[in-house]
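Incident log, structure service

09:12 report received: a user says their structure output differs between two submissions of the same chain.
09:20 pulled the input from the user's history:
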Amino acid sequence: MTRATQSTQLQIEYLQGIHVVDSVLWLDAPRPADLCFVSHAHLDRGVAHRKILATRATAALLGRRRRKAASLLCPFGRRFALGDLDIVLHPAGHLPGSAQILVRRDRDRLAYTGDFSLDRSRTAEPATILEADTLVLECHYGLPHQVFPPRPEVEAALLAWVGQMLQSGRTPVLFASILGKAQELARLLGDAGHRIQVHRSIHDICRAYDAIGVKIPGIRRFNGRAETDAVVLLPPGLRGSATIPRLRDPATAMATGAAVEPDAPLRLGVETVFPLSGHADHAGLRRYVKDSGADRIFLVGRSAAAFAAQLRDLGMDAWPLQPAQQLDLFHPGRLGAAS
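09:34 re-ran on a clean worker, output below:
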């Protein structure tokens, strides 16, 4: 067991997951808990929590993956008490319903982000930066070179590429994670007037979005043949599918934060890449830390150790909260998670 704080009244510990000390509350825990805050619907670990705390949209997107856990559903901005804890959920900008949690005990404040993005999203509620004394920050793109261009520029470049491919008679094939990124792209392409065909797995989640009030209009299921002047949207795992070569002169691209890595198109096995992500980049992480005003900072995620070291070099009290984990961004089996 690692006790993350020693001198503050509101303490957290890492014990196969993040736990708020002297309470029943766990945060995105990978182990069964009596009550676990689930920050977003990507958390598909099959963990049998007795009860989850989440937004209604997150619970709906989790669907059957919630198993038989009871749900404590809370809208954004509504304060409630859990024992001596005062709790409020705030948007995280990662997926529809994705949430950050602000926990108070007396005057001490703990903020936990889970996955978050400060960029404008077409499908998720805009994130806010929480002021806190102790900050636990999810950190995926924490290396100095991992900075994304402004999202409007990336979206404009993606739409220009699609237009060029269609004009030249090619079939644009975009690969994106089936939950979150694919729906962002479908909204972007639909708003620009393009016809969109999507894989059945993406289509199912678009229907789930529709059920929670996030409309993804104009999509059609992809049946193995591309319609004239249509953009095809597929999961990353289908890059090697025999279906792709059978399309009319396919032009392949991927939308992922891993696009900022050297030689990304070659390593990802596509012609071009677009750095669109549902996670904060290095600049966003630095901004969050600064604006939160936190005295103590704990990092989780694949860049936790490196980003913590950067913050300590700036004189901050910052430490990774879990053992460092190596992640190959370009491993075919993991690309769906590197969003």
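09:41 both user submissions now match this output. Likely a transient worker issue. Closing.
09:42 reviewer note: The helical segments are 56-62, 151-167, 181-191, 200-211, 243-246, 264-268, 282-292, 304-313. The chain has two domains: 2-145+278-334, 151-274.
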